[in-house]
Amino acid sequence: MVMETVILAVVIAVVVLAVLGGLVVGSRRKKPLPPPPPAAPDITAPPAEPHVGDEAETPRDEPRRTIEEVDLPDGGSTGTAVEEPPVVPPLEVPELEVPEPTEGRLVRLRARLSRSQNALGKGLLTLLSREHLDDDTWEEIEDTLLTADVGVAPTQELVERLRERVRVLGTRTPEELRALLREELLKLVGTEVDRTVKTEPDDRKPGIVMVVGVNGTGKTTTTGKLARVLVADGRTVVLGAADTFRAAAADQLQTWGERVGAHTVRGPEAGDPASVAFDAVKEGKEMGVDVVLIDTAGRLHTKTGLMDELGKVKRVVEKHAPLDEVLLVLDATTGQNGLVQARVFAEVVDITGIVLTKLDGTAKGGIVVAVQRELGVPVKLVGLGEGADDLAPFEPEAFVDALIGD
Questions:
Q1: What is the model's pLDDT at position 56?
Q2: Is 151 among the annotated ligand-binding positions?
Q3: Which H or E element spans position 160?
Q4: Entry pTM
Q5: Residue-wise DSSP of 20-65
Q6: What is the pLDDT of residues 133-162, one digit of tens each?
Q7: What whole-number distance in Å separates Cα of residue 336 and Cα of residue 330?
Q8: Does residue 352 have a known ligand-binding role?
């Protein structure tokens, strides 16, 4: 019995110790653990500033698609706004100019002509008014005429006639001398010659006019001004820009045409002039115009190539119809050098009329007489300034009156 009691006491003691040990361990677990020491933070370097031409973001390796793999929005999609193209206002058509009537143009321009030509007329009147007309005086008269580019043969003829008339006349009042000089100069210039620019053939339309001459004489400008003359007279005109060798010649001619409503036919720069001339006549016939004006190249007249080209233009144009006029443009200020040019051109194409430009200023009126004698064809038009309507039909009476003054 005693033994059993001891064993029981020992068991109870063991159980009590176990329970107490569990309580102590449990209480220790409930106490919070101290926080661990902080770890060193991860520092990320800031992105470098992009340089010029670099992307603002670090490039990443990504699969790239070609343009064929990208789905583009179809035309009917309304998700993206499409800007309407700006409305361009229509170009304003320039108002056509109305050229001055050609009748009496030279009379209206007489003052301008007389300012530059009075040296000839007044010089002759002064010499003829001397009390004694000896041989020295007649030599001075000859020199005055030669200086005015009248030419040797016409000068000798005029002096001989004046000497005879003065000897027979006896008295020489200023009025008589002026009438005498006017009469003899008119004979020299010629009043019976037909100076009409032929643009109206009887059997067909259009009339065909070819304009030739050396560059620098005002050839292209004269062609444009002649178009104004024809329009002023009620004609319709097509311009052929066959001077394809000079830069901007076609543009210049087209500008002249647009101002009066004349159509211009042109070709490529440095193209075939004969082809342009042919097309101009063809279009003129199709359009039913009255006149076709053809501006030709005018490089140095001493170049054989140019002369051959002019001959070719003439032959090609005449496949349509014969030329009605071939007008040679001469610079009146070049004097005898202009006669050299005239001879060369006359050998290649049959010149039918002369246009004298720059007859104002320092020009010498005697060139009218000299060039007519040289070529046997009349001066038909004269240019008396830079104005658009300063090209006038040549009128011998108005010209001589301007030479000798009032």
A1: 45
A2: no
A3: helix 152-169
A4: 0.72
A5: HHHHHHHHHHHSPPPPPPPPPPPPPPPPPPPPTTS-SS--------
A6: 888 999 999 998 888 888 899 999 999 998
A7: 11
A8: no
* Residue 216 assigned ligand-binding role: yes
CB distance 188 to 219 below 8 Å: no
Q: Do the annotations mark residue 360 as ligand-binding?
A: yes
pLDDT tens digits, one per residue of 93-110? 557 777 777 777 777 666
Mean pLDDT for 187-213 is 91
- Convert the pLDDT of each residue in 346-404 to its tens digit: 888 889 999 998 887 556 778 888 889 888 999 999 988 788 888 888 989 888 887 77
- Check whether 61 is labelled as a binding-site residue: no
Is 297 among the annotated ligand-binding positions?
Answer: yes
Please check if 220 is assigned to a binding site. Answer: yes
Instruction: In whole angstroms, give the CA distance from residue 121 to residue 404.
Output: 4
Q: Is the separation of the CB atoms in 355 and 328 below 8 Å? A: yes
Long-range CB pairs of 119-124, under 8 A, 24+ apart, other chains included: 119/148, 120/144, 120/145, 120/148, 120/364, 120/365, 120/366, 120/403, 121/181, 121/403, 121/404, 121/405, 122/404, 122/405, 124/181, 124/404
15 vs 175, more confident: 175
Residues 6+ apart with CB under 8 A from 405: 114, 118, 121, 122
Check whether 375 is labelled as a binding-site residue: no
Going by pLDDT thresholds of 50, 70 and 90, the confidence category of residue 293 is: very high
Grouping H, G, I as helix, E, B as strand and the rest as coil, residue 391 is strand
CA distance 273 to 240: 9
284 is in an annotated binding site: no
For residues 244 and 272, what is the distance between their CA atoms, to the nearest angstrom?
Answer: 7
Residue 387 annotated in ligand binding: no
Q: Is 295 annotated as a binding residue?
A: yes
Q: Where in 285-342 does DSSP place strands (E)? A: 291-295, 325-331
Q: Is 380 annotated as a binding residue?
A: no
Residue 339 assigned as binding residue: no
Residue 245: the pLDDT is 83
List, in order, residues 6 or more apart from 6 with CB less than 8 Å away.
none
Q: Is 362 annotated as a binding residue?
A: no
pLDDT category of residue 285 using cuts at 50, 70 and 90:
very high
358 is in an annotated binding site: yes
Residue 30 clears pLDDT 80, i.e. is over it: no
Dihedral pair phi/psi, residue 334, rounded to 5°:
-85, -10
